[in-house]
Amino acid sequence: MNRPNTPPAARLLDLMLRQRVVIAAALAGLTALCWLYLFVAAADMRAMGVMAMPMPMEPKGAVDLILLLAMWWVMMAGMMLPGAAPMILTFATINRRRRARAQPYVPTALFAAGYLLAWGGFSVAATLAQWGLERLALLSPMDMTTTS
């Protein structure tokens, strides 16, 4: 809303609050999507476990490893984004002020992508560790299930 009688400082504050709400909503939405994916994946695994005979489910190929990596990366994002949200919002506020003063700035999406990339690196390590432990028969899907 561009109101002609509104002082520039009030318009800037209004814009900052609106942008902050949009960023917070995007982070909350992404977190919710991650958790929804994990709940659906867990339900699928539970349904397969009931219908199939217990057998080792070590990844058999590249597709299985990519799906395992996706699970780890989504799980990391779902758990870590809420904790990183205050820093991401602070970064957005600082860069919004830098942009208003015509100073160099970094888009908030690029900053958040750095977090996702770091969590992706951990996810690669966790995927390889899980795959290695399964191949050595030190970890099995049956060890990771709980009974209700």
What brief labels describe this structure?
148 residues, mainly alpha, elongated
Number of domain modules = 1
Strand coverage percent: under 5%
Mean pLDDT: 82
Q: What's the end-to-end separation, in Å? A: 53 Å
Provide a count of the helices: 3
Radius of gyration: 22 Å
Please report the total strand number as a whole number. 0
Derived from helix and strand composition plus strand pairing, the structural class reads: mainly alpha
Order of helices and strands: HHH
Topology:
Blueprint: H1 8-51, H2 62-100, H3 108-135
Walkthrough of the structure:
It contains 3 helices and no strands. By secondary structure, the chain is mostly helical. The chain has one domain. Helix 1 runs antiparallel to helix 2 and helix 2 runs antiparallel to helix 3. It starts with 7 loop residues before the first helix and ends in a 13-residue tail after the last helix. The relative contact order is 0.12. The model has no long low-confidence stretch (mean pLDDT 82).
In brief:
The protein has 148 residues and is an all-alpha fold. The chain is built from three helices and no strands.
